[in-house]
Amino acid sequence: IAHSMRKADDIPCRPYIRVNDTETMLRLALEGLGLVKLHHYVVKEYLEKGLLQELLSAYNKKEIPIYVAYQQRRFVASKVRAFIDFIASKI
Questions:
Q1: Cβ pair 69, 50 in contact under 8 A
Q2: Residue 63 Cα distances to 39, 45, 60, 80, angstroms
Q3: What's CA 24's distance to the chain center, in Å?
Q4: b or e along 43-75 (b: 16 or more beta carbons within 10 Å of the residue's beta carbon)?
Q5: Is residue 4's pLDDT more than 70?
Q6: Tell me: the pLDDT tens digits for 34-51?
Q7: Residue 80: CB atoms within 10 Å
Q8: pTM as predicted
Q9: Closest listed residue to residue 68, CA positions, set 89, 52, 44, 50
């Protein structure tokens, strides 16, 4: 990202490994092969045991947007409605 186009909170980096699998990212971090950005519930145990260390905590976003996409119809299927209600109750 060019400096003039960069947002104030962007940190430029050049990854040498790119993966989109949480387990693989966690394994790489535990083996000391780089930095990863994972949900707290994934790394909590390893942070508590001292196996991982949190870095750049100032860049953590407190809110994570969650979207439920479904085909809009006149009547929403009961299982879809139940799922939406469940998710809404958790956030």
A1: no
A2: 12, 22, 9, 24
A3: 14
A4: beeeeeeeebeeeeeeeeeeeeeeeeeeeeeee
A5: no
A6: 889 898 889 999 999 999
A7: 14
A8: 0.57
A9: 89
